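Encode chain A's predicted structure.
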Amino acid sequence: MSKRRDFIRNGLLTAASPILVNNLPVSVEKNESKNKAKHWIWINPNRKDTVEDIRKHYNDLKNAGFRGILFEADSEMHFREAKALGLEAHRWNWTMNKGVKELLEKHPDWYAVSRDGKSCVTTPPYVGYYRWLCPSKPEVLEYLMNEAEEILSKDYIDGLHLDYIRFCDVVLPLNLWKQYNLDQRTELPTYDFCYCETCRSKYKSISGKDPMDLKYPEASLSWRLFRYEAINNVVNSLASVAQKHKKWITAAVFPTPEVARRNVRQDWTNWNLDAVFPMIYHGFYQEDVKWIGDAVKEGTHFLAGKFPLYAGLFLADFNNDMSQLDQGIKNAFANGAAGISIFGGATPEVLEVVAKYK
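Encoded structure for chain A:
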């Protein structure tokens, strides 16, 4: 089981001008015209799978109306088998949260620093593998663009799916405050990033102020905007790599534009994407199934048709209640979702519900 799955199981949620449809790369337009299936699924490929196991599972997904699979790891066998069945195979990649041993050892200066002066290298926030890169450093951007180039150059990979494409959670979903013994009605310095020398000097060159000298940094609109734009620049630079390869680029993001900006400095309605996958995990926010529709409505409103939104659903939040899952999907479609993406076990019961909306 991946660290991401462990993290979610333990309770912590992960998470510029747009591309217009008529400006999409040629290969993307072809995919749109040929593939009318709606749904997606996040999967960590099991290296122990047999070809027979893979074919049966992926065929079940296809029959239930799934369009593609977002693979957390690179497994050529899984990708090619998915494609052979007519599914799209995209590489789901952790982006800013990058606990790569070589980077931690050779480039500790690339990592984000909290408002209380602690580096993610030595003091990762919340959990041990929260190792956030600083988006303001040119070296980080170059590294991420080279990584995207390597991924997208592989013929069996149809697109790049960005995850953890944000800053660290300065505010956690309400459901997690008790678990981490935190009161986050105000932004706490330990979880507020990034205050490294690069970010401070770049912001000072724009505003004339050092963010460390701000009396109320959480209330500074220009400091907040600076961080939105730092991530925007990373995403849109990676999008240029995807466009060069005529492949899709998508992202898993926080559930609504407002929550994303407030909690993790993520301004996803201004990204150059082909589609977005908001993680509308209602249980983490102590909301009911109706809120799935509310979140989709907010997202589609601010996107204004720039690119499609696929509602990300966390199956565990439905507690095996298929009627609730059915209502959640119905709410998503009623408010403008192009489809759904599911995180969790695609059991026969789940597939039966999802297939109603294929």
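The longest strand covers residues 88-94.
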